[in-house]
Structures are given as structure tokens and as C-alpha cells.
Design a protein that fits this description.
The chain has 278 residues and is an alpha/beta fold. It has eleven helices and eight strands. The chain has a domain of 193 residues: 3-Layer(aba) Sandwich (Rossmann fold), CATH 3.40.50. Strands 1, 2, 3, 4, 5, 6, 7 and 8 form an eight-stranded mixed beta sheet that branches. Helix 1 runs parallel beside helix 5 and helix 7 runs antiparallel to helix 11.
């Protein structure tokens, strides 16, 4: 396995524990994106739906809950993520979800098996996104749809920039290359749509989903969650002295209250939904 790919997968494997810890909050925060993807592929009562890079099981579990007679395959290469997804499916008594541990560019499914394929916040981390989309199209029935959600520009997403701006004061950010596996790799409009087209999708379109990220957390709890959820944040925090960490927390907690009211954190958010047809 190439070194960059195994590094990406190792970091997601390590994040699995924290994503499981904050599972209910993560599911709630991004549910509007799960619902938008479900609609973008036209999933309905008896559909067979594939979720690629599902992490702790989203959008798989949301779709399985909303469409009890659909069958959903939840896939991710990180064992810790899949284990967390299985636990939640069993806790929620969802019997219409199946699981597979696999990479996007080697899906263990027959050709033309699924009615729809979804992927939320995953494709930016693939070493070869075009190969991933080609593989999703291969697994789709003729006329089936694939839809992926990726973050729009960081400036439109205070959920991200409140933390990254504060961190930048202590650790100067290294500018990411356009194809580095970061959260904003597909923020430029048209970039992911062009990959869908090159992979062979028809009727490719993209639209911006504007929604509010809501989490029942105080600013302190929210900061704690954001510090733990992302491997990049964990790695940067580990490089700070205790004093710097305290100052950083003070800086973050000066800004976060403007997004807090009535015990809830609320952030305006923008995500691009790209879809295509086989
Ligand atoms: C930000 S998480 C998104 C998880 C979930 N879809 C969600 O929205 O909550 C990104 C996921 O992409 C997965 N991933 C990274 N590289 C991948 C690859 N090459 N193929 C498939 N999944 C990959 C990681 O294991 C991780 O679970």
C-alpha cells in the first residue's frame, strides 16, 4: 500500500475512537447532509444503497432508519470506524444495514448491484478520487445515481475556521497543495464535478447545501470535541506547551460564545452536493 494512503488510513483508524465518543453529536450535526444525499440519489422504500467512506456509519444509519425496507451497505476501510457503526446499528435495532471494511477503489460488490451510492465527507481523502468514482459507478445499476458531499470554502464554514484561525496564531499553517487529502480539497466549484465526468458519470450537477450545524454543547464542550475529533488538531495540540494550550483555549473561548445560545452551538455551514448518473 503506498505510504500516503497508509498514513491517511492510520490517522482515520486512530480517529475512530473519538468519532465513536462523539457519535450522537456528529450524527446530529451533519444529519441535513445525510438527508440531502439520500434525496440526491432518489433512495426510496426498497432501494439497495451503498455508502462509501461511511466512518461511524453515516449517512448509512440515517438512510436505514428513514427507509426501513431499504437495504444499506455501510463501508469504510478503518476497522475502528466500522466497529463503531456496527455497535450503533445494533443499539438502534437497525436490521437493514450490512457492513464491509474496504477502500473506495476496491469495492467488494458485483457490477450493477446498487440503486444509489452516497459518500459524505470522504472523497477528499481518497488517493485517486477518479478511481473511487469509477468504482462507485461500476457498482451502480444503469440509471442509478451517485452523490457525494464535500465542504465548500473554509471562509463559509466557521465550524472549521474558528478553530483553525486560533491555532494559526501558535502554529503557522503549511499551505495545502490542491490535491492534498484535506477537508477543503474539493471546495473549488466544478472540481469534483469534473472528476465525476472523467469517471464516466452522466448528467453531472452540483449544488450548494446551506444548513446550520447544531450541537447541544457549551463552548467549552465544543472546543474539547473539536480538539479531539480531528487528527490534525490532535497532532498540533500535542506540539504546544501547556501554557500555549491554555492561551489557545482562552482565544477559542473568546470567539465561540457568538455561536452559542440556549445551550446549543449553531454554525452556518456550506457543503457542495455533487451528483451523477450511471
Ligand atoms: C470525515 S470521515 C467521514 C465519515 C462519514 N462519512 C461521516 O460523514 O460522518 C472520512 C472517512 O473517509 C474514510 N476514508 C479515507 N480514505 C479512504 C479511502 N481511500 N477509501 C474509502 N474511505 C476512505 C476514513 O476512514 C473516514 O472514515
Amino acid at each position: 500500500m503506498p505510504e500516503d494512503r497508509s498514513k491517511v488510513l492510520q490517522s482515520w483508524g486512530e480517529s475512530g475512537h473519538y468519532w465513536e465518543k462523539y457519535g450522537p453529536t456528529i450524527r446530529g450535526m451533519f444529519e441535513p447532509v445525510a438527508v440531502a444525499l439520500m434525496r440526491a440519489v432518489g433512495a426510496s422504500a426498497n432501494s439497495r444503497v451503498l455508502d462509501v467512506a461511511a466512518g461511524i456509519g453515516e449517512p448509512s444509519l440515517t438512510i436505514a432508519r428513514q427507509l426501513p425496507s431499504a437495504t444499506v451497505w455501510c463501508t469504510d476501510p478503518a476497522a475502528s470506524m466500522i466497529e463503531a457503526a456496527k455497535k450503533e446499528a445494533s443499539r438502534a435495532k437497525l436490521s437493514n444495514v450490512q457492513f464491509a471494511q474496504c477502500l473506495a477503489d476496491a469495492l467488494p460488490f458485483d457490477d450493477e448491484y446498487f440503486d444509489g451510492v452516497v459518500s459524505r465527507f470522504g472523497i477528499m481523502f481518497f488517493p485517486d478520487p477518479e478511481a473511487g468514482v469509477r468504482e462507485m459507478l461500476r457498482a451502480l445499476k444503469e440509471g442509478g445515481r451517485v452523490a457525494a458531499a464535500v465542504w465548500c470554502a473554509p471562509e463559509a464554514n466557521p465550524f472549521h475556521f474558528v478553530i483553525s484561525d486560533a491555532l494559526a496564531k501558535y502554529i503557522p499553517p503549511v499551505p495545502a497543495g490542491p490535491d492534498d487529502p484535506t477537508a477543503f480539497r474539493f471546495a473549488p466549484p466544478g472540481k469534483l464535478a469534473a472528476i465525476f465526468e472523467r469517471a464516466g458519470a452522466r448528467d453531472v450537477s452540483e449544488n450548494v447545501l446551506r444548513f446550520t450545524i447544531e450541537a447541544q454543547k457549551t463552548p467549552e464542550e465544543f472546543w474539547q470535541m473539536r480538539a479531539e475529533m480531528s487528527d490534525a488538531n490532535r497532532e498540533k495540540l500535542a506540539r504546544l506547551t501547556a501554557g500555549q494550550r491554555q492561551n489557545l483555549q482562552r482565544d477559542v473561548l473568546e470567539v465561540l460564545p457568538q455561536f452559542s445560545s440556549g445551550g446549543m452551538m449553531r454554525f452556518p455551514a456550506e457543503v457542495l452536493i455533487v451528483r451523477g448518473t450511471r
